[in-house]
């Protein structure tokens, strides 16, 4: 992958070194390897990793694209927590900095994990459908409500931190916070005519979420995943499935 590592003439300008312990390995296993790199003012972890790749470890695998916290490609783990490598400054960390791949997904090599499971989940979500033709006329408050979920950059860090996936490996039964955000956008779109509540309850495992808010804490674009996506969806599912009158209607409808 083409990249622009820390320019050699800048190396050491700020004095001192950054010490990184980077996971080197693949799906079979691996270990942390120590690297040291001259510290440059404003350096982010991705700069350090690319500098190491350029000067010391040309076979070090790392995924990145925009280097501007927009594409979501460089998500990995720093000191065991999901982070965008291009948004995390080296000087925010004391001592050795542990850098590894996201652990909720299979490791491909070094810092790169296989996030393709997420795209399979995405395919299973009922897409937007409308009885009307765009452009739509909508109330301003409805439009504003749709901005936040659309900010998602698909870094999948919320998926990585969620214990339902990371610890309990419920990938077959749980869509994860990123896709609750997507469902929220669809369900709250006033022009959409589909109903995804059954799928959220039965296929997407919304009930597994116990509102720990860990996903919200790591979202790099500030989506309030629990408050604005998950809780409203849970309320809609509860209204639909646990309201006695609606329960009776569903029995009559057969679903
Ligand atoms: S709030 Fe729910 S979806 Fe988010 S990390 Fe916690 S359990 Fe997972
Ligand atoms: S909701 Fe936030 S943390 Fe989750 S994938 Fe989107 S941008 Fe990343
Ligand atoms: S390289 Fe695009 S978000 Fe970090």
TrEMBL record:
Q: Which coenzymes or cofactors are required?
A: [4Fe-4S] cluster; [2Fe-2S] cluster; [3Fe-4S] cluster
Protein origin, superkingdom: Bacteria
Query: Which BP terms from GO are recorded?
Result: respiratory electron transport chain; tricarboxylic acid cycle
Keywords assigned by UniProt, alphabetized: 2Fe-2S, 4Fe-4S, Iron, Iron-sulfur, Metal-binding, Oxidoreductase
Pfam families in the record: Fer2_3 (PF13085), Fer4_8 (PF13183)
Q: Which residues form the Succinate dehydogenase/fumarate reductase N-terminal domain?
A: 20-116
One of the entry's Gene Ontology molecular-function terms is:
4 iron, 4 sulfur cluster binding
GO CC terms: plasma membrane
Instruction: Describe the location of the 4Fe-4S ferredoxin-type domain by residue ranges.
Output: 150-223
The similarity comment for this entry is: Belongs to the succinate dehydrogenase/fumarate reductase iron-sulfur protein family.
Looking up NCBIfam families in the UniProt record yields: dhsB, PRK12386.1
List the protein's name.
Succinate dehydrogenase/fumarate reductase iron-sulfur subunit
Tell me which species this is from.
Rubrobacter tropicus
